[in-house]
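Example 3.2
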Amino acid sequence: MFREKEKFSPDRIVNMDETGITTVLQTPKVICKSGLKQVGQCVSAERGILVTFCGIITAVGTAIPPVYIFPRVRMKDAYLFGAVPGAVAFASKSG
């Protein structure tokens, strides 16, 4: 309906979604024998930071490089080490 009215081609229609990614891994599930009183598990006390990730894709399936938003005042190039080629990062005071 909207596409027919406005005459947008599929490569001009985009879907963007954002999600938060933490820098500390979740604790794994522990499997043990039923009835045990104590089960040992190591848990990290580190809180970590929350990085906002934005993924963008067009209606024809073309993916635009991802965007990362770090809760920082100044941006460093090292934050993108190991990221997808073409990824963009920004710094935001509130993340």
